[in-house]
Write a structure and sequence with these properties.
Layout lengths: L4 E4 L10 H17 L7 E7 L2 E6 L4 E5 L4 E5 L15
Antiparallel strand pairs: 1-2, 2-3, 3-4, 4-5
């Protein structure tokens, strides 16, 4: 079993992260900075599932790793479509 960890946005990433995942974290952080998003209190959470890292940001952004292709996939947090639906007439 591998333990996970948490670290702040812009902080030092865990050294055991694959380079592809580490690069994806940097890319997400750069995008947030470019957009002017205030991430001062945000943290990343690293968990391990079947030996593969899953990294999730407090806003729900998730980075997964494909060891076969040595690639990372970033999935942005989805907003619920129910939030934008208008109430039905009774």
């Amino acid at each position: 079993m591998q333990l996970g960890t948490r670290w702040p946005v812009g902080g030092e990433r865990p050294p055991r992260l694959p380079a592809a995942v580490s690069g994806a974290v940097v890319a997400v952080e750069s995008e947030l900075t470019a957009l002017g998003v205030s991430t001062g209190s945000w943290r990343w959470t690293l968990t391990w599932l079947e030996g593969r890292p899953i990294v999730e940001l407090d806003d729900g952004t998730r980075i997964t790793y494909d060891a076969h292709d040595d690639t990372a996939t970033v999935r942005q947090a989805e907003t619920s479509s129910a939030d934008s639906e208008e109430p039905a007439d009774d």
